Amino acid sequence: MRRIAVEIIVIVFAGLTACNPFAPDQSVFLEVERLDAPATIAPGAQLTVVLTVTTGGCTVFDHIAVLRGTSGAQLAAIGLNTAKGKTNYSCPANIRSDPHSYTLDPPFQSPFTVQVNRTTSPPLVAIVLVE
Q1: Phi-psi region of 44 (alpha: psi -120 to 50; beta: other; left: phi over 0)
Q2: Region 22-44: what's the mean pLDDT?
Q3: 50-100, pLDDT tens digit by residue?
Q4: Of 10, 26, 44, 65, which has the maximum CB count within 10 A?
Q5: From the CA atom positions of the chain, what is the Rg in Å?
Q6: What's the sign of the alpha-carbon dihedral 77, 54, 96, 98?
Q7: What's the CA gap between 125 and 92, in Å, rounded?
Q8: Distance between CA 82 and CA 119 in Å, rounded?
């Protein structure tokens, strides 16, 4: 019986520390090196774009945030900085560039502008014609 009580306490503690509402927000904007998009798409087709995102050290990719309209979309790569809010934490020196795709659903107005906001550089822009 005592063993079961200890296991329950361990499980509850692990669950609480995995989702701590008092932990610092580790979200960060990630640098995007490149934006790949087709020059044209057919009317009614989906539009898939690829962002080459820089991660490494203590940053990992989480998702792509999108602000969408009929004539364009603004994208940003969002990641997590696992060192944020921690002290005496060492990060590995492994910088990577990984492609991440995002698919937008129609309708699209022609031309459709895709813009990727970046942290330290000007935005990347691709113009897609709908023909």
Answers
A1: left
A2: 88
A3: 999 999 988 999 999 999 998 999 999 999 988 776 777 788 888 999 999
A4: 26
A5: 20
A6: positive
A7: 32
A8: 18
